[in-house]
Amino acid sequence: MGDFVQQSTQENMTMMQGFEWHVPADQKHWVRLEKHIPQLKRWGIDNIWVPPGCKGSSNQGNGYDLYDLYDLGEFDQKGSVATKWGTKEELVKLCKTANDHGVGIYWDAVLNHKMGADHREKVKVIEVDPNNRNREISDKYEITAWVGYDFPGRQGKYSEMRYHWYHFTGVDYNADNRLTAIYKIMGDQSDGWADAGDVDTEKGNYDFLMGCDVDHDHPEVVEDVLNWGKWLANEIPLKGIRFDAVKHFSEDFLRRFIAQMDETFGQGWFFVGEFWKDSLHDMRKYLDRMQRKFSLFDAPLVYNFSEISRGNGADLRRVFDGSLVQSDPIAAVTLVMNHDTQPGQALEAPIEGWFKPLGYSLILLREQGYPCVFYGDVYGMGGEHAQPPSCGGALPKIMLARKLYSYGRQADYFDYRTCIGWVRYGTWDRPYGCAVVMSNAGPGTKRMHVGELHAGEVWTDVLGWDHSEIVIGNDGFAEFRCGQTSVSIWVNKKAEGRERFSEEFDTNIYGI
Q1: For the whole model, what pTM was predicted?
Q2: Counting beta carbons within 10 angstroms of the beta carbon of residue 491, is it exposed (0 to 12), middle (13 to 18) or buried (19 or more)?
């Protein structure tokens, strides 16, 4: 028999959303991110979801106002060469630096709609009920709509495709009378929305979201967007794609797009969709239709966090109830906040500041799920509802604790309403493990077992919020504690890497 070779423990991966809604529109974002790559890698970030880098309808927009897929900040269109984030040259440099440091880039693909058309066209439409898009509320009539896309600054480079009214399923503005409504486009090749079952059934048929709704059944559109996917992956080194608004465009097309990327660039790409819905049932049905080659952001978990953070002594034991990470951990991208749920946004899910360290510990220090850290929590948020970095600036320490110590078998102590804890036992090659205890009420204590092999060790809180030392008993148990509405992460004070928690954690990205 051959020699037994013990497998190395797979390193924990963490992704970061690399922007928040109110990043300054100074065209310097790619430069800022690039300079912080080495630090982010040292904190434990392995992949960064960058904002939509294609040209929007203005250089102030965040890219969800998509104008031209093939302009990454290269052509003088919509007011500037650069996007809000910077130029294509700076984007390529960011991706190269990330690649050199072992950090992958996930692209934010906005494929559902276009905005900022170059000219108007006459188009036959039928108005529909905004709350039931299957209910027509007018006869067919003609409007003038902004649906012509010529991309004059690009002049056909990379793609000769021009978009016209028949490449869209709907619009929301009539230039003849300046009225807004939801207008279903009626034409020779299209009778309106995507087929039933190919998009979400909310509001009857949720094909239309905003702007000029792209028709992913039109063969010219299909060819152009599939070509764009291959073009993008050849222009910049990517490890994956985050798809915006997947509830609203063709599942059949998305499956085809993903299959193409896997076939062309090799298996192992990471794909995650924004299927933002507080319904585990609908999320699981979507994953089944996508043949499980896909991940989704865990929206129900975010709403659980919001509810618990605003409740008085809510039941922490139920924090994962109804969440995707509880039922389908392989498919769940866990998060605390993102650009849509941050204060002041349309999908705002308020999470009290005291709860942020608890929420991040729950997604970063447990076995299940692929955690996504929010830029606005690491570096702060701007705008009318500006906030400083969350967790008192300690979020990088929680990220680092995941990278160094959150390994091995997990034992839960979810046995008290307002105080829960868990232990990670470590592995043969990552032996230190950790013990986490948190409270959403008064100070908490939890007697937990970390293993007899740790007997006599002195453990301390890597966050430095509890200054005591805990000695592990001969039976492998100890009384671990945390402060009021707080969390503590206990690790052997002599564990490899402990000195890194005393380093300066620079969360001032705008000081460059």
Answers
A1: 0.95
A2: buried
